[in-house]
Amino acid sequence: MSERATRAAAQFPGQVKSLLQQALLLGDRFELQEVTPHGLAVATGRLEAAMDRLLDKDYRTASNKRLAKHLRHQREYLFTFLHFRAWKEPNVAPSGPSVRR
What we know:
This protein is an all-alpha fold and 101 residues long. It is built from 5 helices and no strands. It has one domain (2-100). The protein is elongated.
């Protein structure tokens, strides 16, 4: 039972790590011009929505509660590096939740 609980508790940090790694890869792909500015904005929005879904859940373990609380507090800053990359493009206006705040 404890092995199962440990595995379940590890899912949330693993999902967060996966989303952040996807964001880093997206930024790299944009720098290599494999993704258009519009594609960057769309993919960034999807990553932000996925993170919001993760952060909307209630977690049972103390460590996951702490991590979720920290990420909720820092939410608007999690993907700013993707918005900043789009700002470097001359015809792309910044958008998204972090810009609206």
